[in-house]
Design goal:
- This is Uracil phosphoribosyltransferase.
- The chain is 31% helix and 32% strand.
- The chain has six helices and 16 strands.
- The chain has a seven-stranded mixed β-sheet with strand order 1-13-11-9-4-5-8. It has a three-stranded parallel β-sheet with strand order 10-12-14. A two-stranded antiparallel ribbon has the order 2-3.
- Helix 1 runs antiparallel to helix 2 and helix 2 crosses helix 3.
- The mean pLDDT is 97.
- The chain binds 1-O-pyrophosphono-5-O-phosphono-alpha-D-ribofuranose (PRP), uracil and magnesium ion.
């Protein structure tokens, strides 16, 4: 399985990640959402290099130009809530893509133990298409796997791209175990070493959904 970790390359994307993480900047919700979005934009550009292309004739006012454009049918799927701004970044570039939305939430039995529930899915058919599942946080990997399984009820994708911003090492191992090795690519801006007792990523950034949209009851 190909894993692309952007933190291994020096680029401006690292500053967007730093602003998401930093306690001095992350409470500016507008900036937080926009940073999720612009990481989505940069990632989608890099991911676009892995799609299939063929030459097309384009008529300009003065002649004909041959341009290689992608032939892939894309489905951009995201996991509510924190996935929404990150998803928008992908959609800014892949503006012709179809879209899917899945809800996943942690239902806590007590302070430390939770189950993940999927209650909502809105998706097109995904047979033979390139499925890109976006979620900024990959902590245990449980939400990503359940979202993927829910999306499989809509067909069999040709390729799956798992796109995240901060992943724990544990989640990377989990995705390697639970997604098809021969047709999955993982894109992450950073891989962090630990999870705390609440299964939050350490050092991570805190709760991405709350930072983007405010605390929930
Ligand atoms: O890998 P996991 O252990 O499943 O955790 C990651 C999930 O947690 C976050 O969502 P959260 O449940 O906080 O919902 P929210 O986006 O509504 O805040 C995040 O956006 C992922 O969906
Ligand atoms: O670290 C984490 C884990 C789950 N959800 C988040 O938003 N952050
Ligand atoms: Mg949250």
């Amino acid at each position: 399985m190909k894993i692309v970790n952007f933190s291994e390359t020096n680029s401006e994307l690292n500053r967007f990640v730093a602003e998401l993480r930093c306690i001095d900047t992350q409470n500016d919700r507008l900036r937080f959402r926009r940073n999720l979005e612009r990481i989505g934009e940069v990632m989608s550009y890099e991911l676009s290099k892995d799609l299939e292309y063929s030459p097309k004739e384009i008529n300009t006012p003065l002649g004909t130009s041959i341009v290689n454009t992608s032939d892939d049918s894309l489905v951009l799927a995201t996991i509510l809530r924190a996935g929404v701004p990150f998803h928008q970044g992908f959609l800014n570039y892949f503006d012709k893509a179809e879209n899917a939305f899945v809800s996943a939430y942690r239902k806590y039995k007590d302070k430390l133990n939770f189950e993940i529930f999927i209650e909502y899915i809105a998706s097109p058919r995904i047979d033979g298409k390139v499925l890109i599942i976006t979620d900024p946080m990959l902590a245990t990997g449980g939400s990503m796997e359940l979202a993927y399984r829910a999306l499989l009820t809509k067909g069999n994708p040709r390729h799956i791209h798992v796109a995240s911003i901060i992943a724990s090492q544990k989640a990377i191992d989990y995705v390697k175990e639970h997604f098809p090795d021969d047709k999955t690519t993982v894109w992450v801006a950073a891989i962090d070493p630990e999870l705390d007792e609440h299964s939050y990523i350490v050092p991570g950034l805190g709760d991405a959904g709350d930072l983007a949209y405010g605390e929930k009851e």
